[in-house]
Amino acid sequence: MREGASPLIQRSDYQAPAYWIRTADLTFDLDGAKTIVASKLQIERNTDLPVQALRLHGEDLNLLRVLIDGQSVSFRHEDGLLVLDAPEANSFVLEIRNTIAPEKNTQLSGLYASGSGLFTQCEAEGFRRITYFLDRPDVMAVYSVTLRADKKKFPVLLSNGNLVEQGDLDAGRHYAKWSDPFPKPSYLFAVVAADLVAREQWVRTRSGKDHLLQIFVKRGDLEKTEHAMNSLIASIVWDEARFKLPLDLERFMIVAVDDFNMGAMENKGLNLFNTKYVLATPATATDADFDGIESVVAHEYFHNWTGNRITCRDWFQLSLKEGLTVFRDQEFSRDMTGSASARAVCRIGDVRRLREVQFAEDAGPMAHPVRPEAYQAIDNFYTATVYEKGAEVVRMMHTLVGREGFAAGMALYFQRHDGQAVTCDDFAQAMADANPSSHLATSLDVFKRWYAQAGTPRLTARGEFNAEAGSYTLTLRQHSTPGAAPQLLPVSVALFGRDGSAQPLQLAHESGAAGTERVLVMTRAEHRFTFTGLTGEVVPSLLRDFSAPVVLDDGLSDADLLVLLAHDTDAFNRWEASQRLATSRLLAAAASSQPTAVDAAYVQALRSVLRHPDLDPAFKDLALTLPSARFLMEAMEGVDPQALHAAREHLLDQLAEQLHEDWAWAWTAHQVREGYSPVPAQSGRRALANLALAMLVRDARRSGDTVWPGRAYQRCKDATNMTDRLGALTALVYAHAELAEPALQRFHAQFQHDPLVLDKWFMLQAGAPERDGKVFARVRQLLQHPDFTLNNPNRARALLFTWDTNPAAFHRSDAAGYVLWAEKVLEMDSVNPQLASRFARGLDRWRNLAETYRNAAREAISRVAAAPKLSSDAREIIDRALQ
Ligand code: ARG
Ligand code: ZN
User: How far apart are CA 475 and CA 232, in angstroms?
Assistant: First the structure.
């Protein structure tokens, strides 16, 4: 394990590699206890640089021998690197033989065991845990790989590219040879040796070529792979249609693995996936799980072009592939819904995640630009900023150059850089050059501040109506974080009359026909826009479809927001109005020491949304869901999580009571009677019905009613799909209903052999709203449960990560939450540093807490900091938290 204070790696220190590796010929004698790796590398000196020693990365390896051009050479170890004096020849063959111990590899980086199989994860720096190498993305080699293993134990042997040979060896062993024609960086290398079966499908792309698609899973899981396969085929079709990017591989494989640190990995031609993003049947997976599979399968598939064909020069450029690929998978998911309102529902979900996770990150100790400047452990920078904010940066480019312009920019990017390892600047330049008259091109330097500056910009908007002139002047001001310069903000805008009618947007100096929606582009701190030809007061609808990732202060009154909630033609802003109305009430209630009674106008507005004849049920579900405590905490200073939680619970209780009849109607009116399908037309109805059920069971606590809890219990028993079963169970558990216990027991008994469903069981209990310390007590109890283990990341996340993001169950006034947190960070760190450093981020925002919490949190973080042994991953997070 890499321990202690690793040196800070700076973006400005980038240097081209001193050597290139042209080909890598690898032979593995695979065995869980001891795997032998023989590597033969064709290496060339980079003659652009002065002659220097060959320094190879390597970690946790047992070196057996080193040969150059067949001769043994001397070597030394320096700062964790294997150093060889510069060979005489500019081109030579390096042969290395080493062993590794996959079964001891609990970090799940490099070659490791999961169940009875062996799997790899190399991004970002796992390849150096397999053999010595120049483990950096700008070194690209053509790989050929020979795998040898026991045939019974490991009947399936896979690596990247094409299978060129296979056969039996003596002593019950067999072999397979793979060759990958595409040069690739080591982080895209993969090996699988396991007892698996595959769903197979041949597809023909537009060029008339046939390709084999395979999804490998454990025996017995084959019928759970249909949705993943359909998603893969849809992704192939979409990328070819929208971006003219065809499948370039003869064979595209997906392998599902139980123990995996992340969602999935885009290894060339051999994607490895967390089972969570492959396996689904209606009985075991929820609507959200089906959507998650569709989007992750697409994401990894899209990486084949944006990531693999063009990769990153260095890890500071991570968003080059991740931001762009998230943008692409978001667009795909939106296109797949097939309706405007379902598209908006996707967008709302994406923005919700961005604001809860990324905005918090950008305000805390881990704040970093989309293109970071420095890191200790690169694995800590697979963040919401690099991914989600990075995707928003690409989305703004798309807004600025339009759909056609964006497609042209992509085409130019591939024309210039296919096969190369490049930078974020190269991408932005291609986009700008393909659209020379766009704001992107004319203000490219201002735009590129999005890559360089951390923090969430604030945008203030104030409007003034001039009745005499019939004009409306909108003043937009941006406030970047201290030290930051103004950024380029595309601000999509519409104006509505008080009666809800959309107004023409005619700027004072313009002539010609005016539309009712347009994008204003800010490049300076302040801009003023005057719209003319207006006959009355207007309500501005700004940042439509969330056109820039900023915090907006538009000073709108409740009355204004009610107009937008009733009439805005942009579904995102319509939803946003509902959230703003809720937020102001929740913040006021949290700040007051008295329970606050909810006002009738707000309740009536929610009722109108719920009963609206034309709105989509999925939209209604989102508009009637209160902002999360995590979101609200970012809108406050000196947060008292218990007070906030109490305020939120109290508002929910009142909405449950005052809208009781409406919830009962909603439940009945949104039952799905046709056969299960995870399509938006059904999932929206299920979501709304489940929200209604939760509110009705909550209200039963007040009224003493037993009918609704009884119905929920019945639904837990009879439901024919997991969305409804889990929805009913959630209603009982979240309301702390008496029937929750028997329902939980039943659920456990029924699904104890399905790890992914069992994860839901843990998650549900750890994520329940706290009440009298019961949720925290339950978390402690579940840590001792025979089904709990820290060795499986999904299980650890289900219990511990759910808990440390559950505000009132984690931030306790007696500090017991923080004490447990410190204990578990350390325990996890000795098993799996990447996982531990993620979990450690649960206290990122400790400085924003009220004093008593803050002091207790500081103490817990300091305790972790003082531990004698800490991985460099966890060390970086903890040090930054205390800085
Ligand atoms: N490239 C993968 C993806 O976005 C994720 C890899 C994450 N790696 C890590 N070390 N956290 O699909
Ligand atoms: Zn990715």
Answer: 46
Q: Assign 453 to helix, strand or coil.
A: coil
- Continuous H helices in 249-339: 287-303, 318-337
Known catalytic residue: 388? no
In angstroms, what is the span from residue 385 Cα to ligand 1's centroid? 14
For the whole prediction, is pTM greater than 0.95? yes
Identify the CA nearest to 691 among candidates 610, 635, 760, 633: 610
Judge whether 634 and 359 are in contact, CB under 8 Å: yes
User: In Å, how far from its chain's centre is CA 810?
Assistant: 23
**Ligand 1 centroid from CA 706, angstroms:** 47
Best residue for ligand 1 mutational test, from 109, 121, 123, 832 (most atoms within 8 Å of Cβ): 123
For 817-839, write each residue's pLDDT tens digit.
Answer: 999 999 999 999 999 999 999 99
Alpha-helical regions (H) of 629-679 = 629-633, 641-658, 660-669
Q: What is the CA radius of gyration of the chain?
A: 28
Which stretches of 47-136 are assigned E, i.e. beta strand?
Answer: 54-57, 62-68, 71-72, 76-78, 81-84, 91-100, 110-114, 117-121
Ligand 2 centre from 75 Cα, in Å? 37
Say if CB 607 and CB 659 are below 8 A apart: yes
Atom of ligand 1 nearest to the CA of 300: 12
Task: Tell how far the Cα of 319 is from the centroid of ligand 2, in angstroms.
Answer: 9
Between CA 216 and CA 112 the distance in angstroms is 17
pLDDT confidence tier of residue 2, bands split at 50, 70 and 90: low
Classified as helix, coil or strand, 476 is strand
What ipTM was assigned to the predicted interfaces of this complex? 0.98
Q: Which residues contact 476 (CB under 8 A, 6 or more apart)?
A: 459, 460, 461, 489, 491, 520, 522, 526, 527, 528, 529
Q: 326 falls in which pLDDT band (50, 70, 90)?
A: very high
Which of 135, 262, 271 has most ligand 1 atoms within 8 Å of CB, for mutation?
A: 262
Residues 252-282, buried b or exposed e (16+ Cβ, 10 A)? bbbbbbbbbbbebbbbbbbbbbbbbbbbbbb
pLDDT digits (tens, 9 = 90+) for 254-263: 999 999 999 9
**829: Cβ contacts below 8 Å, ≥ 6 apart:** 836, 837, 869, 870, 871, 873, 874
| DSSP characters over 353-390 | HIIIIIHHHHTSTT---SS-SEES-GGGG--HIIIIIH
Spot the catalytic one: 59, 125, 300, 322: 300
CA distance linking residue 23 with residue 28, whole number of Å: 16
Closest to 485 measured CA to CA, from 440, 453, 522: 453
Tokens encoding 753:
């052999």
